[in-house]
Design goal:
This protein is α/β, with parallel strands linked by helices. The protein contains eight helices and eight strands; from the N terminus they run αββαβααββααββαβα.
Length: 207
């Protein structure tokens, strides 16, 4: 992976470079799934967080849970979730835009004062397309896309996952980049594209 490829993964469609990783232990909670799928999602979190060298916790002192994943069939269901409109300002207009776009997934991040990720909300509308994806693959994909603040175009043309035999795995280049991103020496966030060079410099010892 070249510095230019790394830079592109954190450069938004607007042209803005924006990198952020979690600053606090991740406390995920999952809504709308059976216990079997719940354990699959939490297993994906454990695997990716361990890869990153980051931490999980049982509770967040401020938020309780700081990474909420919602599985549902219709965007309108979000309007019935108690107090969600307090966590997501202007929830109703957002739902309207997502319905109009026929979207099947959406992620919202909240940030610390230093720009590191403070919380994340992941919404998955289980349409025909998402319902065909094995639970393990879907869970791993969503956790990978939540462990860092990737560009809104990062995985538009190529998935962060790869198929090895009959198993779906995290692409080795993306795995190495996640590990590099959580180097304790690096800041929790960056808005200068030169940060891609700092990430690149930490890739080689990992590969």
């Amino acid at each position: 992976m070249t510095p230019e490829e790394i830079e592109a993964l954190f450069t938004r469609e607007s042209g803005e470079f924006l990198f952020a990783r979690w600053g606090r232990p991740i406390v995920p909670i999952v809504f709308g799934v059976e216990d079997e799928t719940l354990s699959t999602v939490k297993g994906a979190f454990e695997a990716v967080v361990t890869l990153a060298g980051h931490r999980m916790a049982e509770t967040d002192p401020e938020l309780g849970a700081n990474c909420m994943i919602f599985f549902f069939r219709d965007w309108q269901e979000l309007l019935d979730v108690p107090d969600l409109d307090r966590l997501i300002p202007e929830l109703a207009p957002l739902v309207g835009r997502l319905v109009e776009a026929d979207a099947n997934q959406y992620r919202i991040f909240r940030f610390e004062d230093d720009g590191a990720i403070r919380a994340a909300f992941v919404f998955l509308r289980m349409d025909t397309q998402l319902s065909k994806i094995p639970a393990e693959t879907l869970a791993l994909s969503q956790v990978v896309q939540t462990i860092l603040l990737w560009s809104d175009t990062a995985f538009r043309t190529q998935s962060p996952l790869a198929v090895a035999g009959e198993t779906t795995i995290l692409r080795p280049d993306i795995a190495a980049l996640i590990r590099a991103a959580y180097d304790p020496v690096l800041p929790g966030s960056a808005q200068d594209a030169s940060h891609a060079l700092r990430l690149f410099a930490r890739l080689e010892p990992l590969q």
